[in-house]
Design brief:
The complex is a heterodimer of chains A (296) and B (318).
Chain A (H helix, E strand, L loop, with lengths): L8 H4 L4 H30 L18 H7 L2 H32 L6 H9 L6 H12 L5 H5 L14 H26 L3 H9 L4 H30 L2 H6 L8 H10 L4 H31 L1
Helix pairs in contact in A: 4-8, 4-10, 6-8, 8-10, 10-13, 12-13
Chain B lengths: L6 H31 L4 H4 L13 H7 E3 L8 H6 L2 H14 L5 E3 L2 H32 L5 H13 L2 H15 L5 H26 L2 H9 L4 H12 L1 H17 L2 H6 L7 H7 L8 H21 L4 H5 L7
Antiparallel strand pairs in B: 1-2
Helix pairs in contact in B: 1-15, 3-5, 3-15, 6-9, 6-12, 6-14, 7-9, 9-12, 10-11
Classes of the chains: A mainly alpha (296), B mainly alpha (318).
Family (chain B): Belongs to the binding-protein-dependent transport system permease family.
Membrane topology (chain B): Multi-pass membrane protein
Subcellular location (chain B): Cell membrane
Chain lengths: 296, 318
């Protein structure tokens, strides 16, 4: 990167580059520290106390008790299991559906631009509102889904075993287009001459796919997977609006209930920290792969 | 695209096109269904088999905007005349639909919708404004620990909202900022700022430095060069970033649920709260949902060209 010579006549006029740089960057950093980092430090303090925001009683320091109890609580572990199940089901579904559509779309198709744009609509919507209208679609008595698939009065959202899958299906509907978008970008970047060479060598379709397409699309597909994994891990709105089963109680929902319904402020702060550490771990994986792909 | 070589390939191609069309229709079906339910007479919303053909009406929207109220004293004519014309129109229609003398009021939906609009627009302007400056700073000047700072900025976006919401709620409560517009605006600005910086940096990096250097040689100051040369060049990027920030703020649910309850509540927590118990009028819920989706649908079409970079934080260059 070429930089302006700070001693030049041009740079000497007006504010110095240093001043401008600081003026442009520092407010943003300060803002983010005040509204993101400071609150986290604040709640770190509370995570070692038995504070309840619903009462006026002062917080008592309890040391690591909250953490010890949370990590030994089988219900919390169950929330993590539910979350893991949800992440696996919905991300797998999104990859299969999204990558599948991308493979189909990756050819000369009439109205390709329009179709791609229309497929983006679901992911531009509010998850809470989407959850709400899928409730109507899933309704056991008059829902369109049961009617179309002849499922009788199968109660998707009040069935303990089906509810999580019902939420995951909605998530797949919303976010497959995201995987599709990234896959399409990856597919269109595969050099055409590789396919031509494969055709000359009379390579089979499956062989071509496995040896040329997949390895070249893999990095970008990985970004999509990691992105979606992180988002699915954080899911709150969709599951919260759609179902109140304990089999759909994702960790975010547990956290919300603990903090704002049971008002166990101290304990929920500790849980927030456990979740936070997990998110940071996933984020690090993400950034590692992002850098690797960018360096290519 | 490789030329179609054989009959088999032609058939495969046709099959793929057919499959794509079917998939597109399947994906759009839920949206169509909610849109059509919003225009149905109530009796047709929950029929078996589902009603596909019907005469559309706007009754659900009128019901969405009005509510029946139990008043000890009817609203007097003066108060009604003082209301803005659109409010009077809505109430007149509400009286016709709900068929109750004078005890019809504006429902909370218009104000929730307005809250969404005010909060989303303001936080977008702030996030994009600050983000543009910061991105320029990172793009053009040497910053110590640039990668670490950018990672820090990005990391603020990775946190689950509920995690930040617990301490923010306590802090807001301490200073009396729960259920205020400004409270949500600050939160959404913080939330979108990281995204805005990353996206704008991608756009800024693409503007050739020579443009400003030429301007500086011509006697512009750095700031003049920034405002007169760089900003116009970055206009499309700014627009794309703005729409993304808007959509995120518009759709946000968790913070809004936790931080607001009446005055500053936005539509995403409000619409589901209308479900309540008892008999649900799905046409009204559908109308509320449909209306809420309209701005997003418009924006999606307006910026479809920039969508890819936006959703991926600019990680992927087209």
């Amino acid at each position: 990167m070429t930089r302006l010579d700070p001693g030049s006549r041009a740079a000497a006029r007006g504010w110095s580059d240093l001043t401008i740089r600081n003026m442009f960057i520092i407010p943003t950093i300060a803002f983010l520290i005040v509204f993101n980092i400071f609150p986290l430090i604040y709640s770190l303090g509370y995570s070692f106390t038995d504070y309840r925001a619903s009462t006026n009683q002062a917080a008592n320091f309890v040391g690591l008790q909250n953490y010890r109890e949370l990590l030994g609580d089988e219900f919390i572990w169950n929330n993590f299991v539910v979350t893991a199940k949800y992440v696996i089901v919905s991300v797998t579904g999104q990859v299969v559906v999204g990558f599948g559509i991308a493979l189909l779309l990756n050819r000369a198709i009439p109205f390709k631009g329009l179709i791609t744009t229309l497929l983006l609509l679901p992911m531009m919507m509010s998850m809470a509102v989407v959850g709400l209208f899928w409730k109507l679609l899933y309704d056991p008595s008059w829902g369109v889904i049961n009617y179309v698939f002849h499922l009788g009065d199968f109660a998707w959202l009040s069935n303990r075993d089906a509810a999580l899958y019902a939420v995951a299906i909605t998530d797949i509907w919303m976010w497959s287009p995201f995987v599709m978008l990234l896959s399409l970008a990856g597919l269109s970047a595969v050099p055409k001459h590789l396919y031509e060479a494969a055709a000359i060598d009379r390579a089979g379709k499956f062989y071509t796919f496995r040896r040329i397409t997949l390895p070249l699309v893999a990095p970008i597909l990985l970004i999509a997977i990691i992105f979606r994994t992180m988002e699915a891990f954080k899911t709150f709105d969709l599951a919260y609006v759609m179902s109140s089963q304990d089999t759909t109680e994702l960790i975010s929902i547990r956290l919300y209930k603990m903090a704002f319904q049971e008002w166990q402020t101290g304990r929920s702060s500790a849980l927030a920290y456990i979740v936070l550490i997990m998110v940071l771990a996933i984020t690090n994986i993400y950034v590692k792969y992002l850098n690797r792909v960018k360096e290519r | 695209m490789a030329a179609v070589r054989s009959r088999g390939q032609l058939v495969a191609n046709r099959a793929a096109i057919a499959a794509v069309l079917v998939i597109t229709l399947v994906f759009l079906a839920p949206i169509y269904w909610i849109g059509s339910t919003a225009f149905k007479p109530r009796a047709l919303a929950t029929t078996v088999p589902p009603t596909v053909f019907f005469t559309p009406e706007i009754t659900p929207f009128i019901k969405l905007f009005t509510k029946r109220v139990q008043l000890t004293k009817p609203v007097d004519q003066e108060t009604r005349d003082a209301a803005p014309w659109w409010e009077q129109r809505i109430i007149d229609n509400g009286e016709r639909v709900l068929r109750t003398g004078e005890n019809v009021q504006l429902s909370a939906y218009p104000s929730r919708f307005m809250n969404s609009l005010i909060i989303a627009v303001t936080s977008t302007v702030l996030a994009v404004g600050m983000g543009t400056f910061t991105a320029y700073g990172f793009s053009r000047f040497r910053v110590k620990g640039e990668q670490d700072l950018l990672f820090f900025i990005l990391s603020t976006r990775m946190l689950p909202p509920v995690v930040v919401a617990i301490p923010m709620f306590l802090m807001y409560r301490a200073v009396g900022m729960t259920d205020t517009h400004i409270g949500l605006i600050i939160l959404y600005t913080a939330f979108n700022l990281s995204f805005s910086v990353w996206l704008m940096k991608g756009f800024m990096d693409e503007i050739p430095k020579e443009y400003e250097e030429a301007a500086l040689v011509d006697g512009y100051t750095r700031m003049q060069a920034f405002f007169k040369i760089v900003l116009p060049e970055a206009a499309t990027g700014i627009a794309a970033t703005a729409v993304f920030c808007f959509i995120t703020a518009w759709n946000e649910y968790a913070f809004a649920l936790i931080m607001t309850n009446r005055r500053a509540q936005t539509a995403p927590p409000f619409i589901p709260s209308q479900l309540g118990s008892g008999v649900i009028d799905w046409t009204v819920i559908a109308a509320g949902t449909f209306l809420f989706l309209v701005p997003v649908a418009i924006f999606t079409f307006a910026l479809r060209g920039h969508l890819l970079r936006g959703v991926t934080f600019g990680a992927i260059r087209k």
